[in-house]
Amino acid sequence: MARNCSVAAALQVIGEQWALLALREVFMGVRRFDAIQEATGAPRAVLVRRLRTLVEAGVLELHDYREPGSRTRQEYRLTEVGRELQPVITALMQWGDKHLAGPGGPPLSVLHADCGAPVRAVLCCADGHQLADTGWEISPVVNRQNPSGAIPSGASLKQ
Q1: Residues 78-108 pLDDT 10s
Q2: Among 73-77, 92-96, 132-136, which is the least confidently predicted range?
């Protein structure tokens, strides 16, 4: 029996390499399919499936645009649900910068637009206290509506 796990459910939507890389690009302002494909190197058919999953889950949405003299096309934009993944993408980048960056250092910096300081992901409790690496624990929550612990089929992030 599968454990009722939010991490496993989230990975069903964003856990594949090309999905995360596509999200990285959209966060950096790349919105068009061809540009996302070029930036990620994802195979076309795979990227189509990953972007469709992100749209169906409510992480991205399609918007029409039209350049003068061209037909109407679509671009990908983050939804509110998608924008909530910014700390996740930042934390992954931060971890990669710390543990996997080559001798030249990290390839990108995320800077606060107002002051120019580097942005970093941190863990805080609900009262705003920043947590040390060992200052937290994970506790199971009893869910009376789903006592089996199974992940509901067809779960979606759409609200």
Answers
A1: 999 999 999 999 999 999 999 999 899 888 8
A2: 132-136
CATH class of 6-84: mainly alpha
Q: Per-domain residue ranges for the chain?
A: 6-84
Radius of gyration over alpha carbons of the chain, in Å? 18
Record the pTM. 0.79
CB atoms within 10 A of CB 87: 14
CA distance linking residue 5 with residue 8, whole number of Å: 5
Direct distance between the N- and C-terminal alpha carbons of the chain, in angstroms, rounded to an integer: 27
Report which of 140, 15, 2 is spatially closest to residue 88, judged by C-alpha positions. Answer: 15
The answer to whether the Cα torsion of 118, 41, 52, 155 is positive or negative is negative
Count of CB atoms situated within 10 Å of the CB of 39: 14
| SS3 labels along 128-153 | CCECCCCCCCCCCCCCCCCCCCCCCC
Which parts of the chain fold into alpha helices (H)?
Answer: 6-14, 17-27, 33-40, 44-56, 80-83, 86-99
